Each structure stands twice: as C-alpha cells, then as structure tokens.
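**User:**
Make up any protein.

**Assistant:**
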Amino acid sequence: MSILIHNATIITVDKEHRIIRDAACLVEGDRIVALGEKSKVRGQAHAPEYVVDASNCLLLPGLVDTHVHTGNTLSRGLIPPDVDFGEWMGEGMRPFKSLLTSDFGRVSAQLCIMEMIRSGTTCFLDSLVYSRHGFKGFVEAVVESGLRGCLAKFVTDVPRLEKMEGMGDEDTFKEARDLHKTYHGSGDGRVDVWIEPPPLGSTGKSLYEAAAELAVTLDTGLTIHFLESEVDRKRLSENGVAPGRFAEEVGMLGEKRVFVHCVWVSDEDIEIFARGKITVAHCPTTNMKVVDGIAPVSKMMRKGVNVALGCDGFSSNDNVDIFREMRTATLLHRTVNMKPDAVTSMDALRMGTINGAKALGKADEIGSLEVGKKADMIVVDMKRPYSGARRDPVGQAIYSCSGSDVRHVIVDGKIVMLDRKILTLDEEKVGEEAEAAAVALAEKLDGRRVAGR
C-alpha cells in the first residue's frame, strides 16, 4: 500500500525534535520512505493508493501505552469510583477478575482496542493476562484490529484468583512457554508475548528469579507492578526487603523491563533503575483516582530513567486516552515540584511516543517519524474556530488535543481508522456484545454481594 499525507504540520519526535510545517509524508508498504517539504515528497510519490489532505492537522507518531488492562474494560461502572486502592482492589477488582472468563475476555479486549484506536494509540503493553480470561482471544483481538500488542502472560506459584469449577492449574511457567511459542510474532510480527510475575512482595524470591530467567530464555519482555501503594513499601520494609536491590538480585533489570507505577520508590531505587536501564510506566490518572500517591517522575527523569505512560484499567482510569495522560503528567508534576519545566510538553510527548517504544524494545522501528521506520502514525485534526498549532504545535498537542481529535490512524503502513471510522473492527457488533457481557457480569457481581462473598 502507498499512502501520501500532505499539507501537515509534522512533529517527528526524532532526536532533533524537528517540527516540519506545510510538509508531507510518503508511506510505501510498511515503511516511511520520504518525509519533509511537501513538493519534494510529492515528487517521489507515483500514483499513491491513498492521498490524505492533512491541512490544519498535526501528523504525529502513533501513541504507545505501556500499561493497560484490556481484560478490565467491562469493569467500567461496576466498581465503586470513590474508594482507595485497598477497597478498589479487594472489594471490586479481585471479585470482578474472578468472574471474568474467556467468554468475556475477547470482547473486553476488542472494546478496549477500539477505544485505543479512536484516541490514537497504535501500540500497547497489556498487563496481567490470565489464562482463564482466554489468551487466544486476546491475541485474535490484536491481530484483527491491526494494532501492535505486547501481551504480558501472568505467571505465579500462588493463585491470585479464586479457583473455578473445572479449572486446573492456571498461569504456570510451562503454559507461558507454550503460549510464547504459539503466539509470539503473530499478526505479521505485531504480537509479542511477555512475562509478568505478581506484584513485588506477593510471593517468594524464587518465583521472581524464575520469571526473570524465563524472560531471558525466551528473549522477551517482562513487566511488574512495583510499589504502587504505600502498603507495598511498608510490607517490604518490615520484611527487610529493599525493592530496587531485590529486583537487581533476582535479575529483573535490563531493557524491555517495564516497572509499573513506582509511586513509593526511594532515591536508591531510582539510582538502581537508571543503572539497570528499566522503564517506569507512569499512570498518573489511576494513581490519583485510587489515591496511590504521586510517583517522583521528575526526579527519575533527571537521573536518566526512561519514563513512559500507561492508562491502566477501566475502573481506575475509565479511559484509554494517552493524550489525557500526557497532559495530566506535565500539569501534575509541575505543580508538585512548583517548577514549570519539571515535565515539559516535549517531555510528555516523548513519554507517550518514543519513550514507550523504547520501553517495549521497539524504538528502532516506531515511536518517531523518520525515513526507514515503520509507518505507525496518526493525523490529529486541529480545525477549530482558532488554532495556535502553527505557533506551538507541541504545546497544542499536549494541552489542547484529546483522543477525539484523532482523524486517521495508520499502523504498519495500513489504514486502521479513516475519517474516524475504524476499518478493522465492527464497532456496532463489538458494542452490542460488550453491553451484553457487562450486564451478565454485573448480575454475577450482584449475586456475589447478596450472598456475602
């Protein structure tokens, strides 16, 4: 497929942070083959199959979400919104996940992916994918949608969910190996199978060592919830565990290692993170909603830690719009630090694009708009009564844009959304199936509450 996008303001997010006005981009196959002054790029285009007029639009790299739970989509509205993390998890999310089966898993993933497409996310890291929720269905949802997805297969020696009738051993290392062998590289290489152990402190040291070793053996990524709540930090401290040193000792550091939240990290932990080249997935909206606290992101960045963004789940954020997370990240941390440049608009844009690509080991292919890279990009409509995009396009993208402004989405050189219409998924069908599933789950949850379980 050949696609010419012209008359755009291009924010490349490359190393020079180039902004190219009145520009064009040419895609051939799955790659960007030309980028820059529109007359020169047009001269290289020979009868492109699609010509996109991006007048009054921004052309950006596709957004990258480094922490999302596609299996939680149907929990939106089913869990009390005004509770702290402990109640949210214990009284809400854990019972919900125990009821979720493969019958619901695929449509939950499809619904989440559909919303991600609509808000400009082209690549994501899916967290805590349990066996009972139907791993195959999650893979099929990614492949069908056209997005890139890293699916973190949960592995444990201590079951995190209630046993179900007819269910045997779940979430084992053997199963993770088998799923990696079967599905890693699916969808023309758009699907990766990662490993995810339980949150730090949930089980013994040997499990974390085994998970780290398996990720190395499979040459894949590993992600983990890390010091999300103050209770996590206190529990580890009482047991004499220094979190950063523990992660280093069990072999969990390195590239393609994404530690999520990291709200209650110490200065020592941050030094170890920087040295160990891990990525922190910052989820500001979730951390605020369930009253986790505020991660010391500005300090992490100053120490050289790669910080990316995550939207997390649908009952702790209720949204998968990375534009919102970018805006929240810069406003939150400039307020906390009382410094206007604690997290700048360009910092935030990098967190939502190239930093996320780096987190997933894909920075050589996606995350910025450069000749030779994969054609993952979004066209963002700036047609309003007044737009200041020509003066400060980065500021406009971060402070004025939202996912609803995304007009076109291209992934791997293929058009996934055109003029706000998703071409890869049946939106009406997915919506109807999701509504039916949500009603069924609500009835099951209500039944448990009446029974006092």
